[in-house]
Fold:
Amino acid sequence: MNAKVETKAKPLKQAMSGAELFIEALKKENVEVVFGYPGGAVLPLYDALYRNPIRHILARHEQAAIHAAEGYARVSGKPGVVIATSGPGATNLVTGITDAMMDSLPLVVFTGQVATGVIGTDAFQEADVIGITMPITKHNYQVRDLNELPRIIREAFHIATTGRPGPVLIDIPKDIATTVTEPTFVTDVHLPGYQPNTTPNVLQIKKLAEAIAQAEKPLILAGAGVLHGKAAEELLAFAEETNIPVVNTLLGLGSFPADHPLFLGMGGMHGTYTANMAMYEADLLINIGARFDDRLTGNLQHFAPNAMVAHIDIDPAEIGKNVDTHIPIVADAKEALQKLLDLELTAPEANEWRLHLKQSQKEFPLWQSEEEEGISPQQLTKMIHDVTSGEAIVTTDVGQHQMWTAQYYGFSQPNRWVTSGGLGTMGFGFPAAIGAQIAHPDDTVVAIAGDAGFQMTLQELGLVAELKLPVKIIIYNNQALGMVRQWQEKFYEERYSQSLLPCQPDFVQLAGAYGIKGYSVSTEEEAEQVLKEALTSREPVLIDCRIKRKEKVYPMIAPGKGLHEMIGVRP
Amino acid sequence: MKRTVTVTVLNQSGVLNRITGLFTKRQFNIESITVGPTETEGISKMTVIVHVEDERVAEQVLKQLNKQVDVLKVTDITDQAVVSRELALIKVLTTPQTRAEINVIIEPFRATIIDVAKDSVTIQVVGNFEKIEAMIELLRPYGIKELSRTGQTALTRGSQKQVTDLKQYSILK
Structure:
């Protein structure tokens, strides 16, 4: 017999350094991967990481690390975890933190800080990260006492992932990470000032059900709140039961199947004519998890002027912020929709309305110009859709390529669409694709980028090559900041101030320098062939697509105009 | 419109910065802000006088404050019966002739002279905003050398008499 004898009782508490405690706390939060970049003030954390590994993704720039974490969070629903050093490391995160704040992505960001004793002395690599990030985080902490670290980390994950998700930052001075203590880990959170409400008010739900029964021109506007609330199924059931047409916001794409007969497309500045006119003409607008952003509403005076507005949002501050709301429902989208579905909903008599919208869809489809040689970016997007069966995870930056993707890719599943909506960050898409690929290693991940935006974070080719991540980079190359040029053409009498980029690297050679296979295509035939080959490979690939240089995104609501004043509605 | 908002906060480091930063970010205009500990240890109370355009902005002020993790409670007490007080220190130029006059002026305000110099006196006055404004106006002709005010702090009255038009900012409306 070789029965094991317990020789030592497990000590209740174990002495560990702040850095070890940090790793332990991450494990307790089930963190599988962290994105980061080392530096002086986080050396103790990285040393603990070396001895006690959690998968660490070494980006080539902190900004890319945080965008990757955003991509990871967006497609996995899990919090993205980021580590950066003090000073420049932390300030390089600012864009990503703001981006995550605007688009409600759950992040927990750790920054190193100079030692407690020298904080405030303008020490080497010191920056007031708490002050800098206060307005761009959901909450932030500076650790003053090591014994508080377990509680702070627990709270940070709780705050980042509950209610309206958002970024939370924890600033850890270097000496805190090296101090030794016997920590007490906590599991529950006590935050009297943070009690997000997820359950809808029954009376308001009834009121909405009554309004639905009486509506003649009802419309659902579904935003990213549906995705964060994992409520896509409920949304589909709700729309089908009531037979109410659906418009998506940019960030809400994928929350409702694009090929569904009730789907009218994306609303807003470059939304479909029918989606925008539906919002303009509706008599009942049911907003589920959208924040009535100005790019969606256009001029507020002309936004849904005839509609009774119902707004389901987990963040009470969003209700009534931009648009007067008649039926406010503070709740999680899933819970609110479930409560609605529990009622015997009377579908409105809206046949005429649906016919009218169908007619409008037929009469005003999205269109593209027939002028100019070269690849049509709209066709290219459709090809990417077809080759990937519409099932790829697609990421973009901001600008024309983003709008073409939103208009033409036709997302049919939730959490496959990763874009920088609120902040509109160039350079976001490529690193976000890396994060998405790490979350879903077996899925096809396509980073659609403009030639200008790609050049903002292209150093991450190094990371893709190192990890052999099969990310597909597709550059919509029009040798310009396309959207800026479009506005200059339209609103600044063709004065193309600093928006043309005639000098570019040879992207194929650039990819080659990293050992990544590159293609350059300049006709649609070539593009189709290369896409079929490249998108099915298990290697990273870069495709430089020479698109029509002057193609514009239409239709459009010009700045300051209302929903009903779209231009470029027809060829 | 002017709103008086009290904010009960956890006394964490940086909490004042958090609140004032929020006002800056959202372009809410603060007229005055006071902060101090409450009867409960670790909890402070701020009284903020804020100028807003309309009710929508007033509602946003409350909701945005409420979103802060360190904020426990936000109340707009503008339309409630309140007692509000502010303290002001006013250094007024004097000559032997005017000294007596000034004494007479400040007496009905129950203000006190707390420092006397050869050519000036410093007056301390406590009262609501209007009372302090009124006294400053009366003293201005004599020459105000320096003025320092604490900003208003306020409490709702123990019994709220016939407040019919109580403004409720609730999600239910």
About this structure: The mean pLDDT of chain A is 96. Chain A touches chain B at residues 130-131, 134-135, 138-139, 142, 144, 159, 191-194, 201, 203-204, 315-317, 319-321, 324, 328, 330 (CB under 8 Å). The first strand of chain A starts at residue 16 and ends at 17.
